[in-house]
Every structure is written in structure tokens, then in C-alpha cells.
Amino acid sequence: MHKNTNYDVVIVGAGIIGLAHAYHAHQRGLRVAVVDHATAVVGASVQNFGHACITAQSGEALRYAGAGRTHWLDLSRKAGFWSSESGTHCVARHDDELAVLRQFAEVRGPEQAQLLDRDEVLNRLPISADGVTGGLFMPLDLQVDPRRAAPSIAHWLENSGVDFHWRTAATSFDPGVVRTTRGDLYADTVFVTVNYDIDRLFPEYAERGGLLRCRLHMLRAHIELSTRLPTPLFTGWSLLRYSGFEGLPAVVDVATRLAEEFPDYLDLDLHQMYTPQPDGTILIGDTHIRETSASPFQSEAGFEALVTEAKAMFGVDRIEVTERWQGVYSSAPDSEFLLVEPISGVHVVTVTTGIGMTTSLGLAESSLTRALEQNASTQIGVDA
């Protein structure tokens, strides 16, 4: 345990949401501590695609994603991890999918969404021509290395003066106090950013929000392609996944057709997407199974679906799977964020869908500002 126990801000959870809060607090010159039960950054913050899919969001998520974009690029330079202003392509393989993309492009405009015809898609992407009707390019999206980004941020913050209390579990809270397995820490402002584990610290709020654990099938693979996949690649299934596409009239047609054609994939809650990595491999995912307690077992059906569809997408007979894993993140039915203050000065911040990397830096900037302003107004009231 570090000798210091008094801070301006204490953050429980060293995932990307917690690290984003630590980054913004550190940038303000505050004394910051991060507490985590593990010995390093693990969990959803390294199990993901490393894809900041900014443009496909809506509402608060779009605002947070957009605000965080410059911070991702800033942190990439400071902490020394790979990032790319790659943008994202989405391929349409049916007229109803192209109709959604056309509607989306009309709403967002060319700075955010550029409609592509069939030839443009096939010239840009090393995919099979079968069924391709067109596509979309979203130039504002970013990529980072999911295995290195969050750990690199933690390392940079620790070297920059943020105290990390690793292998230390928070057990309870009082106003101004975080009780841990290695002693008490004191701060006027506390953030609890433990993803799905919020049900272990504040179960009533998890239950009230319908919080579940969403587990995924994911793969890393080598695929022999004619040219390198230049950007993350969305598909028709992506149009059912992101809030930015919700409400577009043609989405209903896509959802109905995919449910009729692929009922087994619907049961897996498939999201067919591909993200190229700096080493030339491609991350392939994913499926979604929601449970209160995530089962440790995965059926092979999910992996078979990902491999089958990858072969069809890229027109290859074989892919070399080098890794497969079960990602887990928090999920809730009615909101993308769980933001509550169960105890005065203790702020729970959880992303309740798979957009933690996308929204983390903008969300943290907003929640930190709000908490500090609240503390300042409270202090003024006390002084008065």
C-alpha cells in the first residue's frame, strides 16, 4: 500500500472507464488514486475490438464518443500505443441494407457518412463480390490496439504521478472514505467504475437497472487476402447493433429478413464485424448471451458461425484461428449508461452496452466535471 491515503479523487476500477477518469483528473492537476483487485488491466478493456465506432452512436453516446476522439489521439501519443484514424467501412449485401446506409448518410452528411457504390466498395475492400450492393464509409472512427491501449494508459498515468493500488479490493464506502482490503483511502470525490461487478458493491442499483453480464464469442485469425483490410468492417448485422441506425425506416426490413434467413444466428445475437490489427491479424466477432452470472462454458456454435461467415465475407476456404476467447461486459435493457450516486460523493459510472472504449474518454470528462461542480456548490453552501 502506498503511504499516501488522502486524495482529491479515488477511482475504483482500472478498466478503460476508470483510467479515463484518472486521465481527466490528472490533467486538472488533482491528486488521484486508482484501486483495482487485479494486478494489471484485464477484463472488457482488453477483450474488445479496439474500435472507437463514433459515428454509429446517437444521443449521449454520440456526444461522449465525439468528445473523446481528440483525447484518444492525445493519449496514444503520450502513452505510446498504436492508434489509427482509419474510419470504418460498412458493406451492404442486400438492397434493404443499402437502403439503411443511404438513409443514414442523408441524415449525417458527408463529413460523417459517405455512401459508396458497389464498385467503390470492391475497390477498397478485399471481400467477396457475392451479393455486394454498395456500402458506407465513416471517416471519423478510430482504432487502437485493444491489448496495449488501456495497459499503456495505466503505465503512463502511474509514471506521471497517479497512485495505483493494485491487488486491492474496495469493500465498502462512506462519504469521503473508500474502505479497501489494504486500509482506508480518503477523497471528497470517488468514482466506482467496475463494469458488471457493480452488483457486488451496490447490488440494489444493478438490480434496479436490470444489469446483466453479456458474454461474447471472439476470435483472432490470419486470413490470406489479396490486400490488407484497411479499416474495421461492419455488415448488415451491425445495422441492428448501434443506436445511430435505430429508427431509420429501412432497419425494420433488414431485421425481418435476417431473422427469417438466419434464425440460428439470431439466437446467438450475432454481430458480424472484422477489425484489422497492426500485426496483420483480424479480430472477428461476435455473439451476445446475457446472464446475471456469466457461464464459463461456450458452445462451439458461436465460433463456427464466426468462421463460416468470415470465409464467406472474404471469399476464402480457410482461416487460421490463433486465439479465441469469451469477452464479458455489462448490459442493461433500457439504457447505455448507469450513472448514479448511491452515497454522497460516490459516483457509479458504468457503460451498459459494448461501447465502453468508444465513449469512455468523453463520458469520464463529463462525469468528472459534473462531480467536481457538485462538490464545489456543496462547499459553497457549507461555507455560507
Quick rundown:
The chain has 384 residues and is an alpha+beta fold.
Number of helices: 11
Structure class: alpha+beta
Shape: elongated
Q: Determine the strand fraction and express it as a percent band.
A: 25-35%
Please state the CA-atom Rg, rounded to the nearest Å.
21 Å
Mean pLDDT: 95
Biggest β-sheet, characterized? 6 strands, mixed
Sheet with the most strands: spatial strand order: 9-2-1-13-21-20
Low-confidence stretches: none
Would you report the number of β strands?
21
* Separation of the first and last Cα atoms: 38 Å
Helix content: 25-40%
How do the helices and strands line up, and which of them pair or pack?
Elements: E1 9-12, H1 16-27, E2 32-35, E3 51-52, H2 59-79, E4 83-84, E5 88-92, H3 95-108, E6 114-117, H4 118-124, E7 134-138, E8 142-144, H5 149-159, E9 163-165, E10 170-174, E11 177-180, E12 183-186, E13 189-192, H6 198-201, H7 203-208, E14 212-222, E15 233-234, H8 251-261, H9 263-268, E16 273-276, E17 282-285, E18 289-291, H10 300-314, E19 320-331, E20 337-343, E21 346-351, H11 356-383
Parallel strand pairs: 1-2, 1-13, 2-9, 5-15, 13-21
Antiparallel strand pairs: 3-8, 4-8, 5-7, 6-7, 10-11, 11-12, 14-17, 14-18, 14-19, 16-17, 20-21
